[in-house]
Amino acid sequence: MSAASPPRFVLASPESDFYWRSGADGRLRIQRCGDCRRWIHPPGPACPFCHSRRIGPEPVAGTGTVATFTVNRKEWIPGFTPPYVFAFVELDEDPAVRIGTNIVGCEIDDVEIGMRMEVLFEESGEWHVPLFRPLETRAARGSEGS
Amino acid sequence: MGEPQERRAVISGAAQSDIGRRLYRTGIDLTVEAALRAIADAGLTTADIDGVSTYPGFGGSFGGAMGAELHEALRLSLNWRSAGVETAGPLGAVHNAILAVATGMARHVLVFRTVVEGSGGPLRPGSGGGGGSAGSAGPFQFMIPYGAASAACWVACYARRHMHDYGTTRTQLGAIAVNGRANAASNPKAIYTEPMTIDDYLAVRMVSDPLCLYDCDVPCDGSTAVVVSHRDYAPDAPAGAVGVNAIGTAIRGRPSWDQFDDLTSMMMRHTAASMWERTELTVDDVDTAQLYDGFSWLTLAWIEAMGFCGKGESGAFVEGGANIGPGGPLPLNTSGGQLSAGRLHGFGHLHEAVMQLRGTANIGVEDCEVVAVGAGGGPETGCLLLTRGPS
After folding, report:
1. Sign of CA pseudo-dihedral B142, B148, B149, B151
2. Which of A8, A72, A98 sits opposite B153 (nearest CB)?
C-alpha cells in the first residue's frame, strides 16, 4: 500500500454500520446469533441458520488466515495506487467468516495463502476500515498497536 | 421426472448486429439490427413475435437496451415480456423465454443481449468490468473500500486458490486465451484476430495477479438476438431449429462472490449439475462446448463444473490446447470466445452453439449434435444443453 491512504468508499447499510465503526476501540466485531451462537457475515436482519432475531455484534480476536488474494497492478479506482493486495482472510472463530481486506505491513511478494494475519484499522472519515497485517510482526513491534 | 418441459422449445432464429470495439451506436439501434436479422432468420415477421425477453433490462449494467425499447421500436404486440438481472446469469433471459414458450404464454419470443461497453465511456469504479457499484450498500460494500472494484479482482482470488490447491499454472490458464485467439481468426466479427502464442500471453502485463491482460475479455459494442419458438414450429424454421434438451439454473450455494463455500469453484458447479439432472445425455455426448470466458479462469471452472474433467484437473486438461482445439475431443469456444471475439456476455457463445448445430459455424465441428453452453461467473451462472433438431 502506498503511503497515502487510498479512497475508502464505505457505504454502510443499517445492518453493517457497526462493522465499519467497530475499530474505534481497536476491536473487530462480527454479527453473532444470541441463540445458536453462530457467526454471521455479512451481517443481516436475522440469523440465517436458526432465524433468530436475537443477533448483534460481538468482538472477535481479529486474527485469521489468508484464504486467497490478488495483487492488483491496475488502478481500478483513482487514488488506489497499484500495486496493492486484496485478500480474503478467514477468521479464527469461524473460517466461514471471510473478510475482504487489504494486506499491509509486509512486502507484497511475501503474502501467501495460509499466512497468519491480525486486524488493524485505518481511519477514513467516520469509518474504521479493517485491514490485516502479518501476525508474526507482533513480537517485532513489542507492545505497540496491541 | 417426466419429460423436461424445456424440450417444448426450440431456437428457430439467431443473429448478431455488427460487432466492434467502438461503434458509437446506441444500444437500441444495435438491438433492432440483431432482432430483425434473427426474426428473418427464423422465417418470421415482427407480427409473429409475441414475446420479448432480455438481460439485464431496466437499470442493468453494461449499456444495452430495455425490452420495452425493442417492444416500442418494432411496434410489437406481445403476450409476454420479461427482463431482469436476478437470473441464472445472462442466459437467464433465454431460460425465461423457454419457460414462457413451454407454458404457452408465448409462441415466438425474441431474446436479446446488447452491450455498449466499447464506446460506453471510460471504465470508472463500479462501472463495467462486472464490477459492483461504488455506491452500493449491498454485498460489494465489503470489497469496494479495498480497491477491489472489478470482477477481475474477485476472479483472480479464485484463480490463485485454484493454482495453490491444484498446481494449476499460468501456462495452463493461458491455453484458454491462446485457443480463443486462434479460433477468432476465422470469425469475421471478432475483435482481436492477430496470432497470439503462449509466450505472448506470459509476457503481457498483469492486471490482477495472477490474471494478466489476456485473461480478461475485451469490451465491445454489439447485440445478439435469438428467437425461441414452440417446437411445433421446428419443421418450418428455414435455417433449422435447434433443440433445447435441458437448462441449468440451480443456485444451491450462497449467492455471493466473496462468501461462496469453495474458493476453487463457483455457482456453475451447481448450475451445471442441475442441467445434467434434467437429461439422459452425458458429457460424453457433447460435441463442442461454448463456455464463458469473461475471464479465462471462469472457463476452467466451467470445464470442471460440466464434468469434462475432474475437480482440479482443468489446467492439465487444457494445457497445450490439444484437447480443446478444432479436431480435439472437446472443441472449445470455436468462434473465439469473449477474450478475442468480444464481451457479448454469453450470447456470443449461444450464437456459436446455434451455428455449430446448424453446420454453419466458421470452424465447424463434424457431425455436431450436442452443444453445452455455459455463461456467467461468481453467483450468476446458467447453462443450456442444445441439440441438432428438437430434443
Report:
1. negative
2. A72
